[in-house]
Amino acid sequence: MNEPVICAEHLSKRYGDVVAVDDVSLRVAAGEVLGLLGANGAGKTTTVELIAGLRTPDRGRVTVAGLDPRRDRAALRQVLGVQLQQAQLHHALTVAELVGLYRSFYPDPRPAAELLDLVGLVDRRRTRFEKLSGGQQQRLSIALALVGRPRVVILDELTTGLDPHARRRVWAGVEALRDETVVLVSHAMDEVERLCDRVALLDGGRIVALGTPAELVARTGTADLEEAFVALTGRDLGREAAA
């Protein structure tokens, strides 16, 4: 059996009295899209920040493509692409300038035209970042995460707050990925069902269930993933998002 591209073992992280991540273990295979699904505060973002080396676990260990995210930072940047919830990009630079800047960080970057075509921004290449719509900014963030031809991509709440048309354009960009291993953080059931091979349900910093969407539905005897999530966690993401 091939070694997993991402291997997280017994990760734990506490902030004061708050346990953000509690004994989380995950293995993600090459080319797999794994969804991390949970309510706000479930530990999704902290989990991927630990995987990406942006935070140090209190306990446990993680490797990405055989690399330690904290010890092997320079090497990890060449194999890992990360799109976080809030893109901190220079608002005065154009789309083409931002792509060119990020391409300069890698020895063999993807062609700019290929990246912009992937996320549907060819006609916005001369537009400043501040003039892009929210959906266009999110799509640009995906393109920048893919500049260095990463083996592993982390996408954190990539369609939160987007209109239905923009969400579908972003989804199309993710579906165009063929060889990359993807970890997708989301609280959107339709997004997870459409894009993910397997789903890890997080609640209170712990993984309460792991499997394909169909397996989780079958395990709970429910009609769909949303009902399965409620059955497994006692939470209703739709109500919590509206609150």
From TrEMBL:
Gene3D superfamilies assigned to the protein according to its UniProt record, in alphabetical order: P-loop containing nucleotide triphosphate hydrolases (3.40.50.300)
Signal sequence segment: none
Keywords: Antibiotic resistance, ATP-binding, Nucleotide-binding, Transport
CDD domains (UniProt xref): ABC_subfamily_A
Alphabetical list of InterPro entries matching this protein: AAA+_ATPase, ABC_transporter-like_ATP-bd, ABC_transporter-like_CS, ABC_transporter_ATP-binding, P-loop_NTPase
Residue stretches making up the ABC transporter domain: 6-229
Biological process, per Gene Ontology: response to antibiotic
Pfam families: ABC_tran (PF00005)
A GO CC term assigned to this protein in UniProt: plasma membrane
Main location: membrane
GO MF annotation terms: ATP binding; ATP hydrolysis activity
UniProt keyword ATP-binding present: yes
Lipid bilayer topology: Peripheral membrane protein
Protein's UniProt keywords contain Heme: no
Compartment list: Cell membrane
PANTHER family hit by this protein: ABC TRANSPORTER ATP-BINDING PROTEIN
Name the record gives this protein: ABC-2 type transport system ATP-binding protein
